[in-house]
C-alpha cells in the first residue's frame, strides 16, 4: 500500500511536469476541460495533487501544468503564505480527498517576496537609525527576528522571515529568497499541521517544492 502511494505521487508529479513541458513548449493540450469531463465530476472529485501557490496572475497552476477539471486542488494567496485557511484547505485535500502529492509552487519575480525584501530593508534602516553604538547595533541585529515577528505587515511577518533566513545564509538575490521561501513554506506546513505530519510519516503523502520561471515557462524542481 505504501509503495503504491509513493508511486502514485511520483507518477502524478511526472505527469504534472510533462504537462508543464507541453505548456512551456507552446504545445498545451488543455486536457479534461470538455463538457463530458465536467459532467463526470458532478458527484465527486478525486484530484491527484494539492497545490499551494502564489496568487500571481501569471502563475495559474492548471495552466502551467496543462491540467484540467478535477486534476488539482489549488490553494493560492500572495506569496503562498501558510495561514489557518491555507492549512485547513490543504488538510481537507489530504484527509478527505486523499491527495498523495502536495506541491508548493513559488515563482520567479514574486512581488510578495520582493515586498518582504523591501520591508526588511526598511526595518533594518529603522533599527540602525535608532542605535548609536556598535554594541547596540549588534543587539539590534540579534533581535531582528523579534522585530519581524512584531511587524504590522502580514507579508513581513510571514515572508520577511524567509528573506531574513536567506540573508543570514549569505544568499543575496531574489531567486534565492524565493527558493528559501518555498523551503520555509514546506517547513511551516509540516510543523503546523498534524494532519500533514502524519500523512508524511505514514507515507500517504509526498511534498515537493517548485519555482516557476516566467521567462522559460518551466518549473524548476527544488530539492531540500
Ligand atoms: Zn508571487
UniProtKB/TrEMBL annotation:
What are the record keywords, sorted? Answer: Lyase, Metal-binding, Zinc
Q: What is the uppermost EC class here?
A: lyase
What this protein needs as a cofactor is: Zn(2+)
BP terms from Gene Ontology: carbon utilization
Short name of any one Pfam family annotated for the protein: Pro_CA
* A GO molecular-function descriptor: carbonate dehydratase activity
Which PROSITE patterns does this one have?
A: PROK_CO2_ANHYDRASE_1, PROK_CO2_ANHYDRASE_2
**Functional description taken from the UniProt entry:** Catalyzes the reversible hydration of carbon dioxide to form bicarbonate.
According to its UniProt record, which protein family does this protein belong to?
Belongs to the beta-class carbonic anhydrase family.
Protein name per Swiss-Prot or TrEMBL: Carbonic anhydrase
Question: Can you name the source organism?
Answer: Bifidobacterium pullorum subsp. gallinarum
Amino acid at each position: 500500500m505504501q509503495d503504491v502511494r509513493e508511486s502514485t505521487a511520483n507518477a502524478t508529479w511526472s505527469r504534472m511536469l510533462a504537462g508543464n513541458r507541453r505548456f512551456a513548449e507552446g504545445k498545451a493540450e488543455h486536457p479534461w476541460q470538455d463538457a463530458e469531463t465536467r459532467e463526470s465530476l458532478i458527484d465527486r472529485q478525486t484530484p491527484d495533487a494539492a497545490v499551494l501557490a502564489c496568487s500571481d496572475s501569471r502563475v495559474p497552476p492548471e495552466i502551467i501544468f496543462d491540467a484540467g477539471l478535477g486534476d488539482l486542488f489549488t490553494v493560492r494567496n500572495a506569496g503562498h503564505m501558510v495561514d489557518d485557511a491555507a492549512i485547513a484547505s490543504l488538510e481537507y485535500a489530504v484527509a478527505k480527498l486523499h491527495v498523495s502529492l502536495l506541491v508548493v509552487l513559488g515563482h520567479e519575480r514574486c512581488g510578495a517576496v520582493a515586498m518582504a525584501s523591501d520591508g526588511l530593508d526598511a526595518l533594518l534602516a529603522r533599527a540602525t537609525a535608532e542605535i548609536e553604538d556598535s554594541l547596540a547595533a549588534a543587539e539590534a541585529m540579534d533581535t531582528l527576528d523579534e522585530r519581524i515577528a512584531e511587524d504590522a505587515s502580514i507579508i513581513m511577518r510571514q515572508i520577511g522571515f524567509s528573506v531574513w533566513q536567506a540573508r543570514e545564509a549569505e544568499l543575496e538575490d531574489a531567486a534565492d529568497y524565493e527558493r528559501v521561501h518555498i523551503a520555509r513554506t514546506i517547513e511551516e506546513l509540516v510543523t503546523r499541521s498534524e494532519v500533514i505530519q502524519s500523512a508524511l510519516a505514514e507515507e500517504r503523502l509526498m511534498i515537493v517544492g517548485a519555482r516557476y520561471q516566467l521567462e522559460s515557462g518551466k518549473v524548476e524542481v527544488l530539492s531540500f
